[in-house]
Amino acid sequence: MRAERPAPIEKPVFTERIAGWSAAHRKTVVLGWLLLVALVFVGGQALGTRSVPEYDAGQSGQAERVLNQYSAAQDNASAETVLIQAKTPGATYATDPAMRQATAQVAAALGTLPHYAAAIRTPSQAGGQALVSKDGRSALVTFQVPGTVTDTGAAVTALQHAVAGVQAKHPDLRVAETGDASIGQAINSSLNFSKAEATSVPVTLVLLLAVFGALVAAGIPVLLALTALTAALGVLTAVSHWLPVNGSTFEVG
Fold first, then answer.
1. Tens-place pLDDT, residues 163-206
2. What is the pLDDT of residue 150?
3. Which of 47, 51, 57, 63 has the fewest CB atoms found within 10 Å of its own CB?
4. Sheet harboring 78-86: ordered strands across?
5. How many angstroms separate the Cα of 229 from the Cα of each of 3, 26, 32, 138, 145?
6. Could you tell me which of 49, 78, 55, 56 has the C-alpha nearest to residue 250?
């Protein structure tokens, strides 16, 4: 009888070799990983975040490009509008002194925030007739939040507080602000990612502790996730210089 040849020994695949080496050099792997995360994060922060515009396809994308070019020409300013509207039937801007007074008060309140409100226009100015509706029931005060504002959230809060002060003086009128900066702030507030971030880690740790039964075993996946997230933020910060990265991506990450 012919002797059976022994089955050839299969060489471990590349991932198995990495896993074996990592298990044999645990301290080196952990320290190397932490060093890599620190370098990626610090490097991303050094580069800083850049906002590359993102456009849709087709005609909507063409319109977005035109609007973006216009915004760039206007120093990336955000257009804001304050509506002053009569609640009393028959009241108009021409006949209701309260409307004209509220309009002037809105302009004056915005004028006290020159760093946040620029290019303020009211119906009483030359060429301001276009800011009054045809039926005279509504009037607008327009202004711009300069593109040089670094904290848009603080700017919107201060501006809305000023407008709310005028609204409190005129309960018979509707005085409300809207615009690019206000809508963006409202969306960011409604998403409320910060609350989810504050609760997700403790809840995850408790669940893992119940599954593994040991704090060290439960903490390793959480620690790995946090360090991976830190590295991902650094990579996204660098990528934002060449590719469009939505601001919400950092929060979702």
1. 999 999 999 999 999 988 888 888 777 766 566 666 777 888 88
2. 81
3. 57
4. 118-121, 138-145, 78-86, 173-179
5. 57, 21, 16, 49, 33
6. 49
Mean pLDDT confidence for 5-11: 63
Residue labelled with tokens 């900066």: 181
| Residue linked to tokens 């848009």 | 152
Amino acid at 123: P
Give the chain's end-to-end CA distance (angstroms, integer): 65
Cα–Cα distance for residue pair 212/154, rounded to 1 Å: 44
Q: Please state, in angstroms and rounded to a whole number, the distance separating the CA atoms of residues 94 and 72.
A: 37
Separation between Cα atoms, residue 247 and residue 53, nearest integer Å? 11
pLDDT over threshold 60, residue 251: no
Unique residue bearing structure tokens 């909507």: 60
80 DSSP β-pair partners: 143, 179
**Strands, E, within 74-224: which ranges?**
78-86, 118-121, 138-145, 173-179
